Amino acid sequence: MQWHTELAAMPFLDFNLFLRCASQLKDDILQPQPDTISVVVAPEVLPPSINTFLTEKATLSEDAVDVLWGITKDLIWTLPTLAQAV
Questions:
Q1: What's the CA gap between 48 and 32, in Å, rounded?
Q2: Cβ proximity of 14 and 55 under 8 Å
Q3: pLDDT attached to residue 82
Q4: pLDDT score of 32
Q5: Separation CA 51–CA 38 (nearest Å)
Q6: How far apart are CA 15 and CA 68, in angstroms?
Q7: Can you give the pLDDT at residue 83?
Q8: Is the distance from CB of 33 to CB of 43 less than 8 angstroms?
Q9: Using an 8 Å Cβ cutoff, are 52 and 8 in contact?
Q10: In this structure, are residues 46 and 65 in contact, taking their beta carbons and an 8 Å threshold?
Q11: Number of other CB atoms surrounding residue 39 within 10 Å
């Protein structure tokens, strides 16, 4: 993340917000994927609607969201959703 100027300056609370939001959106991330995609592995690329949502929620550029997803997708996929945590 240090090589990406926008992400290098990202506050921890914003990073945490990104992780939590993306984790809660797992079903929405999977919905437009082909049925041949495994549900136990995070998709390589976010759907455009999810990218746009995370861009607005985390106040990041689309490029930063793409890079951050690439770095954190495996971690995000292991985090429980609210429904799973209860």
A1: 10
A2: no
A3: 75
A4: 87
A5: 20
A6: 9
A7: 75
A8: yes
A9: no
A10: yes
A11: 12
Predicted confidence at residue 81, as pLDDT, reads 77
How high is the mean pLDDT in each 10-residue block of the chain (86 residues)? Answer: 86 94 94 84 94 95 96 94 73
pTM for this entry: 0.88
Measure the CA–CA gap between 37 and 86, rounded to whole angstroms. Answer: 27
Residue type (1 letter), 59? T
The two three-digit tokens of residue 67, written as one number: 């890079």
Q: Tokens 């300056």 map to which residue?
A: 9
Asked if residues 19 and 79 have their Cβ atoms less than 8 Å apart, the reply is yes
Geometric angle at alpha carbon 57, from 51 and 60, rounded to 5°: 65
